[in-house]
Design brief:
Elements lengths: L7 E9 L6 H4 L19 H4 L22 E4 L11 H9 L3 E4 L4 H9 L3 E4 L2 H13 L4 E5 L4 E3 L6 E2 L4 H9 L3 H6 L2 H14 L5 H5 L2
Parallel strand pairs: 1-2, 2-3, 3-4
Antiparallel strand pairs: 1-5, 5-6, 6-7
Length: about 210
């Protein structure tokens, strides 16, 4: 069981409006080995956050002092594409990112987010652009994310609902891993198995013959 995500939380946003950011960009392979949690943030966007001599790139958004405590990343389409590198989500989480908002995600990255208690939510490109514009003109722009209501709210903008299935929401709110989340449905699974065996005894002949 991992840390729970609050049902509703408010945070400043950091905007990285670049499409097709792959997992190798999020964390290069060199920073995926011989490292322990919670220190994967050292490799987060390493080639963008730091110069070759190891000094910070002050022009990169995540290095701006005003974004140091941002917990919501607003980014471009197909975020997290590429390899199935779960350490990409670890790096974001270890940096303090609780939610990533994008028009679309790499499928494996999207699933990895929920396995590591990070919300991945899809909004339209127009909605992403609207939030980005507000954040650009307001140094302290914050958004509120309500997991129960599956909605993002931001000053000056209408509520933006997003899709989130019940099981994934429960994983976030209770800090459950996939196995723990599945076990919360144990009674429903058992009831289905009983009904299914009655309907299709040939599927599990050993079980039906023992009754």
């Amino acid at each position: 069981m991992s840390d729970k995500l609050p049902a509703c939380f408010t945070s400043q946003v950091v905007v990285l409006a670049i499409p097709n950011i792959d997992t190798d960009t999020i964390i290069p392979i060199d920073y995926c080995v011989n490292r322990e949690r919670p220190h994967f943030d050292e490799g987060l966007f390493r080639l963008w956050r730091f110069h070759d001599d190891g000094t910070e790139n002050t022009d990169f958004a995540l290095n701006a002092p005003r974004f140091r405590n941002a917990e919501v990343l607003i980014t471009g389409e197909n975020f997290g594409c590429g390899s199935s590198r779960e350490m990409a989500v670890w790096a974001l989480a270890d940096f303090g990112i609780r939610a990533v908002i994008a028009p679309s995600f790499g499928e494996i990255f999207y699933n990895n987010c929920f396995q590591n208690n990070v919300l991945a939510a899809c909004l339209t490109q127009a909605q992403i652009d609207a939030i980005g514009h507000c954040a650009e003109i307001n140094d302290t722009y914050e958004v509120s994310i309500d997991i129960d209501e599956k909605c993002l709210r931001a000053p000056g903008l209408p509520p933006y609902p997003f899709d989130l299935d019940g099981l994934r929401a429960e994983m976030l709110l209770k800090g459950l891993d996939p196995i723990e989340a599945t076990l919360t449905r144990e009674a429903e699974i058992a009831a289905f198995e009983i009904t299914d065996r009655a309907k299709r005894p040939w599927v599990n002949p050993r079980s039906s013959s023992s009754n």
